[in-house]
Specification:
The C terminus is likely disordered. Helix 5 packs across helix 9. By secondary structure, the chain is of the alpha+beta class. The strands form three sheets. The protein has a seven-stranded antiparallel β-sheet with strand order 1-10-9-4-3-2-5. A seven-stranded antiparallel β-sheet has the order 11-17-16-15-14-13-12, sandwiched between helices. It comes from Ensifer adhaerens. Keywords: 2Fe-2S, Dioxygenase, Iron, Iron-sulfur, Metal-binding, Oxidoreductase. This is Aromatic ring-hydroxylating dioxygenase subunit alpha.
Length: 414
């Protein structure tokens, strides 16, 4: 079967406002096309500056077939490198994170500098050229404390995202924070189901009792339509903007990334069971205002985020297979905040730990039902699932263009 043309045919024939055909969620060949055309071509959120504060710090990650290591070199620059030894391909860094003066392959001890240049390779002959065997670099950019990588040879321009995101992120100084807690869960469902579930709160009242104490169920808060016409949101934007915090909804022309600052329920300050702040020490000295709500930032296909006055929660999505997705959540606090003094870890993490597990169950039940041969695409709610429709539209447009060889957008079949 010609998977590429089969996908194009189904994308062109897709009914607007409906979920995708079954194959997009379960088929291994469709999944491979997702990897090749999105995950290996787009900018991907991979971690935070604060995770590698000193020279020699590193962390590793797997993106599809690519093992990657992120390091901070001796000049303080953040580097992304293919974690594959130039000798015989073994992984050089095998731990999830660590610190090392050099990067040493455990197989034959080929030794690399923190910027990836080869320093030592034992008994390789007089004609061996070390300069030609450095670890291969990966395009890497940072903005507002976030690290993004791009696996393609000629990456898309990062400037548009930087220009949009930096004004929103800068006051929170996330590059000067620390990770108070990190969790990784595996959801038995396609990565697109994880995103579709995230992009609506139609399911929240019945499934997220902890989150609903502080996060509004209103589709104007979660979706992409009507926020400026919601008087509560409009008032919140005006208040925050007057206090020097960029807050109004902005979205890229492609629909790939966006940001807005949303109010929490009943003037809550944080994602806690009481609505009070989880951390006594403010996340940033530059943000002293109260009741600023949550800065929501999205960048498909890898991240959604909540940045509050007292802490930030960041989420990273990575595909592991056609029906397997890794979701990593990190709670960031002021670098000087002390556990047990400035915050209680259970109080800080409880709401989103519970919400993540509830979402895992939802995605897995969704995936279970889609495996049925009786499944067919169903209609989204125009009122509550506008965010889902926007995500699916982004995915379909990107895939149509890329499967067609980056030609002009293909016309739809009525």
């Amino acid at each position: 079967m010609d998977t590429r043309n089969d996908m194009l045919r189904k994308l062109k024939g897709r009914q607007d406002g409906y979920s995708l055909d079954r194959a997009f969620y379960i088929d291994p060949d469709y999944y491979r096309q997702d990897l090749e055309n999105i995950w290996y071509k787009d900018w991907l959120f991979i971690g935070h500056d604060c995770e590698i504060p000193r020279a020699g710090n590193y962390f590793t990650v797997q993106v599809g077939d690519y093992p990657v290591v992120i390091t901070r070199d001796r000049q303080g620059a953040i580097r992304a490198l293919h974690n594959s030894c130039r000798h015989r391909g073994s992984r050089v860094c095998t731990q999830a994170k660590g610190s090392s003066a050099k990067l040493v392959c455990p197989y034959h001890q080929w030794t690399y500098e923190l910027d990836g240049s080869l320093l030592f390779a034992r008994q390789m002959g007089e004609d061996f050229d070390k300069a030609a065997h450095s670890l291969k670099p990966i395009h890497c950019e940072t903005v507002g404390g976030y690290i993004f990588i791009n696996l393609s040879e000629k990456p898309m321009d990062f400037t548009a995202f930087r220009d949009m995101a930096l004004p929103y992120l800068a006051p929170h100084r996330l590059g000067e924070t620390k990770v108070a807690f990190e969790s990784t869960i595996i959801e038995k469902g396609n990565w697109k189901l994880v995103w579709e579930n995230n992009r609506e709160c139609y399911h929240c009242a019945a499934n997220h009792p902890e989150l609903c104490r502080t996060y509004p169920e209103a589709p104007t808060a979660t979706g992409v339509q009507g926020a400026k016409d919601d008087p509560v949101i409009a008032e919140h934007w005006a208040k925050c903007e007057a206090e020097g915090l960029p807050s109004e909804f902005k979205m890229s022309p492609t629909g790939q990334f966006r940001a807005a600052r949303m109010p929490l329920v009943d003037n809550a300050e944080s994602y806690t069971m009481s609505g009070a702040r989880a951390v006594r020490r403010a996340l940033s000295a530059d943000v002293s205002q109260s009741q600023i709500g949550t800065l929501l930032m999205f960048h498909y296909p890898t991240t959604w985020n909540h940045v509050l006055a007292d802490h930030a929660i960041t989420f990273r999505v990575l595909p592991l297979g056609p029906e397997l997705t890794q979701v990593t959540t990190k709670w960031l606090v002021n670098k000087d905040a002390v556990e047990g003094v400035d915050y209680n870890l259970d109080e800080l993490t409880h709401v989103w730990t519970e919400t993540n597990d509830q979402d895992r169950q939802i995605v897995e039940e969704n995936a279970f039902g889609i495996r049925s041969p009786a499944y067919e695409p169903g209609p989204y709610s125009p009122e509550h699932e506008g965010g889902v429709m926007q995500f699916v539209e982004w995915y379909c447009k990107f895939m149509e263009q890329r499967l067609a060889g980056d030609a002009a957008p293909l016309s739809r079949v009525a």
